[in-house]
Amino acid sequence: MTQIKTDIFISGGGVAGLTAAAAFGAAGFQVVLADPMPPITDEKTEGADLRTTAFLQPAQQFLATAGVWDRLAPFAAPLQIMRIVDAGGAEPTPRVTKDFNAADISDKPFGWNLSNWLLRRELLARIAELPNVEVRAGIGFQSLFTRTNEARVTLTDGTRLTARLVIGADGRGSPVREAAGIGAKTTRYGQKAVTFAVTHSAPHGNVSTEVHRSGGPFTLVPLPDLEGQPCSAVVWMEDGAEAARLAALDEATFNAEATRRSAGTYGPLTLASRRMVWPIISQLADRMSAERVALVAEAAHVVPPIGAQGLNMSLADLACLLDLAQAAPDQLGDAQMLQSYHRRRHPDVMLRVKGVDLLNRASQAENPLLRDLRATGVEALYGLAPLRKTIMKLGLGARG
Ligand SMILES: Cc1cc2nc3c(=O)[nH]c(=O)nc-3n(C[C@H](O)[C@H](O)[C@H](O)COP(=O)(O)OP(=O)(O)OC[C@H]3O[C@@H](n4cnc5c(N)ncnc54)[C@H](O)[C@@H]3O)c2cc1C
Q: How many CB atoms lie within 10 A of CB 327?
């Protein structure tokens, strides 16, 4: 039977797990990562993750630390302005439009948008440069046994390994979280997101636009031009049955409905990718750590896709964990390090899960009175410059 000894075992090779492998590998730690699903690194292959992720400033810095940003930069679309549009009146036309400009708080854009399938490709290319990182694709985490000084992990192919630290980056149903006996509280909204790319005649001007009416936000995020035409990624949140109906519409009808729901933001929208449907939930693990185990990303927290918080919170988890590991490498995975990790991350994560939950409920509102209240709220909040700037800074990851 194969027996391996490593510093860090990472369960899960989604964007968070792969970034963790690149970052800890670049810092000189011995890393083994396992995932039962081999990563798909080509957008044409069935099952490719066609979503995009907006990496906010701190996440971009972390990707640079992991040695992966230079590879990603040529494909990244900057986000200079976040535009909130309320179209909750009788007709789906804008009645309140407010621009949050990164220039008010920084000399850089808020962030940069990248395709998830491309992120996997470039993260794997970076990992291939690191001889101290081993990726076991097609093999899953199976079981965990921990003692004070090490964790023992068994993989689905029977491989056994010992690690000083196990990182659970294995998604919202995290097997590592379950094996470590950490509970999680889940909130369901009965809501789904339809994701797709569109081309349009008007340029996006590096503006990310959230249009609120009912059912959830309709968000357009800038992408680089596609065959000479302006292009954006869209996340369209609706109640589950409505999302299923939209995803099944023929293209011409879908284009017309998407254009109407976008409140005419960039003129007529034309579908430029497959459509995918994602369930929307909020979830928070009771703890970020257990003996020899740290939970990161969706294994620890899931939020609706509003304000680009999800993966950005995940990279903040990784930055914190790496910071602690590098400050005291001999104590990697010990009780003190993991207690510090939990203490530093859990309050911020809790605040963001609650905040995004509230924003999502406000955006879902069907009742015209609540929709009016939302529009008034956006106006009032925007009118107070110091509050507006604080909110922008919080959105970028500053601590409350
Ligand atoms: C529509 C939508 C749009 C979004 N947009 C943004 C955005 O703009 N910005 C942002 O910051 N966030 C965004 N998010 C959130 C972001 O996509 C997620 O936070 C991120 O994809 C989750 O990454 P993850 O690696 O934690 O989980 P996953 O991608 O779910 O990866 C988990 C991995 O664990 C693996 N796994 C499962 N079981 C095992 C096992 N037994 N052993 C080992 N591995 C296992 C799975 O195969 C999978 O590869 C969005 C989310 C949605 C739904």
A: 10
